[in-house]
TrEMBL record:
Pfam families in alphabetical order: Cob_adeno_trans (PF01923)
Signal sequence coordinates: none
Name of the molecule in the record: Corrinoid adenosyltransferase
Enzyme class: transferase
ATP-binding is among the record's keywords: yes
Lineage, top ranks: Bacteria, Pseudomonadati, Pseudomonadota, Alphaproteobacteria, Rhodobacterales
Amino acid sequence: MVVLNRIYTRTGDKGETALGDGARVPKDSARVAAYGTVDELNAALGVARLHADGETDAALARIQNDLFDLGADLATPEPDKDAARPHPALRVTGAQVDRLEAEIDALNARLSPLRSFVLPGGTVLAAHLHVCRTVARRAERLVVTLAAAEPINEPGLRYLNRLSDWFFVAARIANDDGARDVLWVPGQNR
């Protein structure tokens, strides 16, 4: 259980923060940038939820919880093989990725195939989901950068990759099953 009875601690006043394993790192480290961007995505998703209801809102709530799991995962480095940890770290699992894939398939089955790229927009919810999609892609790029420097939990990276696809399909659903999609017209304004 998490207990937060004090919000400020002053321990980060010199530009460092603690990871899930207690190690202190600079606040601009690749790991902090990755999980910080996942946190930013979660906040953008909170705004999107203001415009969602029913099953869409329930799905977005599940994703918000998954994003906290992912943040905890990224905030806790993979241990050395010989290191003992008193409690196992929370890790994103393949089952969470599988759930996203199943949801993408179910949502996409409702849509007509695209004949053009979609511009972000349409309904308010769709526009917010497109913002979430782009923040998810940025988070994914930062996790790739982190993975080049140190080991990560691979399902977390796969989760972010699927999540941006989920947001794309969900944005089309929010655009009246694609009827209100704003389509790109190449060279329209030449």
